[in-house]
Amino acid sequence: TGSSRPQRMLKAVQKNATKGDPQSVISAIDYYCRHKEWAMNVGDEKGLILDSVLTEVNPSMALELGTYCGYSSVRIARLLSPNSKLITVEFNPAFAAIARQIIAYAGLQDKVTIVEGPSADLIPKMKERFGLKSFDFVFLDHWKDRYVPDTKLLEECGLLKKGTVLLADNVICPGAPEYLKYVRNNPRYESRYYKSYLEYTKAEDGLEKSVFLG
Ligand SMILES: O=C(NCCCCCn1ccnc1)c1cc(-c2ccc(F)cc2)cc(O)c1O
Ligand SMILES: [Mg+2]
User: Fold this and answer.
1) Per the residue annotation, which of 44, 46, 64, 170 is the catalytic one?
2) Ligand 1 atom closest to Cα of residue 118
3) Atom of ligand 1 nearest to the CA of 199
4) Which of these, 69, 134, 122, lies nearest to 98 by C-alpha position?
5) What is the strand order of the sheet 61-65 is part of?
6) Catalytic residue list contains 144
């Protein structure tokens, strides 16, 4: 059997990026996925919006739901202050194995913890496992029908505090209509849509930024 798309992406990073240089890892993946083989990374255009929101929030504790190959983990971790951390949740062990190698290649392994398993099971264990009180920033990029239940779970587990920023990928394509309804009609959130494009394509997509009001 041949290689997988994530394995080919890792090879492209090892071939074209410089070890310990996160920006070169990001550029190598974006080049590969734009010119060789599409893949579901947040990508360079939506990535710039992610960067700007991150710089504004400057989180101490960040959570990512949906690691895939670690592209957005690298984008997030490269912008974190010293002693700040990213926890990223991946359901698929094969994805997690590649992500671990790509994050390590970028030299960001000390800032990122990858946890494997269903977010529904892992979220309620976060406080005890990582000794954390709450997250300042959450990037939602996993199964689109899990955005609402996992947001409710984060609320119920007391993992959101006043001012926590949720940023959701793909709210247009593939789409997360229930999530948009949930955060936009909810007095506990202040929401805003950032129009952009589906990674490496001309199709519309965008990010929804929602501030938890406590
Ligand atoms: O499905 C996506 N992501 C979830 C992957 C599995 C998550 C597993 N997991 C991790 C933790 N808990 C569960 C996704 C899809 C697309 C897309 C867009 C157009 C198209 F034609 C095909 C696909 C674009 C994205 O940007 C995406 O993020
Ligand atoms: Mg996505």
Assistant:
1) 170
2) 12
3) 26
4) 69
5) 112-116, 85-90, 61-65, 135-140, 160-168, 204-212, 189-197
6) yes
Q: Which ligand is nearest to the CA of 173?
A: 1
Instruction: Pick the catalytic residue from 30, 150, 169, 205.
Output: 169
DSSP-derived 3-state class of residue 40 = coil
DSSP class per residue in 145-161: GGHHHHHHHHHHTT-EE
Q: Is the ipTM of this complex over 0.95?
A: yes
The neighbour count for residue 92, using CB atoms within 10 Å, is 14
pTM: 0.99
Strand 135-140 with 160-168, pairing: parallel
Cβ contact 207:196 at 8 Å: yes
Pocket flag, ligand 1, residue 119 (CB < 6 Å): yes
120 Cα to the center of ligand 2, angstroms: 19
Q: pLDDT for 115-144, tens place per residue?
A: 999 999 999 999 999 999 999 999 999 999
Q: Are 22 and 74 a contacting pair, CB within 8 Å?
A: yes
Burial 58-74 (b: 16+ CB within 10 A, else e): ebebbbbbbbbbbbbbb
Average pLDDT, the chain: 98
pLDDT at 43: 98
Structure confidence by residue, pLDDT tens digits, 69-89: 999 999 999 999 999 999 999
Closest residue by Cα to atom 7, ligand 1, is 142
Which one from 144, 150, 205, 209 is the annotated catalytic residue? 144
